[in-house]
Each structure stands twice: as structure tokens, then as C-alpha cells.
Amino acid sequence: MAGKEVFINTARVDAGKRDIPPGIIHRIPSDLAPITNFKDIRGERLADSEAIFIHAGDGSTSYTINELLHFINSQETDISPETIPPFVLLGGGSANTLLKGLLQTPKIELPRRYNGILPPNSFEVRAYRPPQLTDEEGIQYLAYLATFGHLSNKTTEVKEKLATRWPKLTADQIRLAYVAAGISSLISLHNRVEPREVSFTQGGKQEYLEGNIAASPVISVPILGTFSFNKPIKPDTVRLLALTSENELELHGKYGLVLLIGGLFPSGPDMLTKWGILESHDASAVNVVPNDEVYFNSVIDGNLSHVSGKTQISRSPYILHFIIPNEVSQQYAPKK
User: 82 with 218, same domain?
Assistant: First the structure.
């Protein structure tokens, strides 16, 4: 039988001091001590809980998903969706890409097993199969993103410095942070860590990216930073975005257009795809042969990372359920 709930609250570390939305904090059991350190997040404890309340950013959410599914995958018995505890998302990060992305996916009917976690009619539920990355080291479960191509320490540093300086970032300040990070990444584009090969499986056929690769993110929700895509992503596919060119000058020009149009106009990413500047491929799997000459050769859920040897990104077989309180939904829902 499941144990009591788990409350993960790393938002103070991830994005400065952020308050849990009014009307939500009293719904968290008063005797529930928060986990505030990554090292204390254990898969066994997560799997044995009735619900996982999480007030944190994408990094902490990604870490929690990975810990939970690794523990479940290590068990010899079959695991059904009914035995996996739901997540209760309370916001709290600087970007909250997964949360915003889930709010762009269809609502599902309330499973009866969630009765009692929050008061009736006070929340929405989403079902989601997170992606998994498989390389020579094994399987890693992701929240929403794996990217290869242009990687820059400066990009991450600029965004994190702005988030630290302004803990309670407004929507405009978040956009400013991404624009500043984008400009720094454009300047350092010549120092990109380009994968040796990128391919994707679509309709049973394998296709390869050609030319120089500036960026090739793989996402599982229709949102990436300030970019938002109108076309939904099917639950069994991932979306490969590709910025490629035959020569460096054109590549820099395309990169600048993506930053300008994609960052300023709500329908910018779709316009870029329609014009052929940005490639978009929905695939059952994306395969990457990374650059193994450097340590940081990928970005996983917004954090610089390392993958080893041939790497594949696809949907995991596990279905997770996310409970989103109405107050949080109203705060993070895309603007009409």
C-alpha cells in the first residue's frame, strides 16, 4: 500500500524565492516535510507514495522523473499506470517548460484513484509519456528535451545570472533572458559542438540530416523556451527540430532569423517551418552519433550533459499523470 505523499520543494535553489500560489499551500499536508536537496530524492520513496507534490523547475522535475522511473524499471514485476503515483505540479521554476507544454495537451477525465488528493473540481489532469534517452551508459528518462548541435556555456550562464538577479521573473524578463542567451549563442555559434550524425525514423523509414548542423533539439511538448508550436505532438512521437545549412554564413543568417522571428512572433516557429528555414520532423525515434571529443556534447532538460556513443531518443513505455491545480493552470496557461 502506498505511503504518504512526497513534497519536493527546490524552487528556492532553482529560481530564487518563489511563493507557492495562494490557495495551494494549505492543500499540502501540514506535517509533510519538504525535500529541498537533490540527494534526498529517492526512487523507492517516490514509488511508495500516494502523490508527488513538486514546487520546482524543469531540472528538479526531470531529476525526479528519472529517479522514479529508474526504480520502477528495476523491479521484476509488471508496473501498470495505476501503480505509478501522480505528480502534482505547483510551478516554481524560471521556465516551467514541461508544465506549460502539458497545458497545451488535451485534458483527460479524472481517474477515480486521484479522489482525495485535492478537493473536487480544483484541478486538471494530463496523461504524458516522457521521452527516454538510451546510450552506451543505459537509459535516462527525460522531462521534455534532449538537444545536440550548438551548445554554449555562455548561453546557460546568461540565463541563470538573469534568473538569479531577478528571482521573480516576469514574462517579459524571461523573454529578455532568452533573447540575451540567444544573442550570446549566436556570437559563439562557430564554437558549437556538432554531432557527427543525426537521423530520425518516420513511417518506418530512416532519414538523415544533411549539411552543417547549428541545432537539433528533440522535444516532446510543443514549446521550447519562448518558442511555441501550434501543431500538437502525438503521445508516441518526439519532434526533431533542425537548423542546418551547406555553408557557415547561411547558417549564421538562419540562426539569427530563428532568434528574431521565433522569439518575437507567437506563430514564429510555424512560420519558420513553413518557409523552410527550420526543419520539423515528428518521429518515432531520433538517433544521434554525438561528438565524443568533448565532455559536454548535449543538453538534457536545459542542463549541459554528456551522452556516450550511439544515442536514441524515443517515448518511454510509462504513462505518467500530472495533476495541475486550477490556480497553477491559470498562472501558466498560454496567453490567448
Answer: no
